[in-house]
Design goal:
Distance between the termini: 10 Å
Number of domains: 1
Number of strands: 11
Largest sheet: 11 strands, antiparallel
Order of helices and strands: EEEEEEEEEEE
Oligomer: single chain
Strand content: over 45%
Length: 136
């Protein structure tokens, strides 16, 4: 691991150490974090509880602490910042109201990444989940 870039690389989901929302229970997952000039590009894929392979749309983390439109989600903006070298925080807003929060924290030894997410899913159901990922 590059100590200057604790997020970069490949991460595998550790389901045993994660806490899933009942409506969102992946059985496998992989995240790919790539450093960009603005922050990071994160790609994710996995297998849901029905055995279907799911590829998430790539997510850009623009770490400047300013509002940026969330692609494909009308009226939603996100503020992203790197509060410490090992922590990225995200807050999503719609019409001035917070509609989602996430934190991504890499452990001090660089071996795990914990993603805590609370928001609404596509069916407008609130959810909270904590996903633990192991560095590959």
């Amino acid at each position: 691991m590059d100590r200057e870039d604790p997020f970069g690389g490949i991460w595998k989901l550790n389901p045993e150490n994660s806490r899933f929302d009942p409506n969102h229970c992946p059985s496998r997952g992989t995240m790919y974090w790539e450093r960009t000039s603005e922050g990071y590009l994160m790609r994710a894929e996995g297998t849901n509880s029905d055995g279907q392979v799911v590829q998430e749309k790539p997510q850009r983390f623009i770490l400047d602490g300013k509002d940026h439109p969330v692609p494909d989600v009308a009226g939603v903006t996100a503020v992203m910042l790197r509060s410490t070298p090992n922590t990225i925080q995200v807050e999503a807003r719609k019409s001035g109201r917070v509609v989602g929060k996430a934190s991504y924290v890499v452990s001090g030894d660089g071996t795990t990444l914990t993603a805590a997410v609370s928001s609404e899913d596509a069916q407008h159901r609130p959810f909270q989940t904590v996903l633990v990922w192991d560095r590959q």
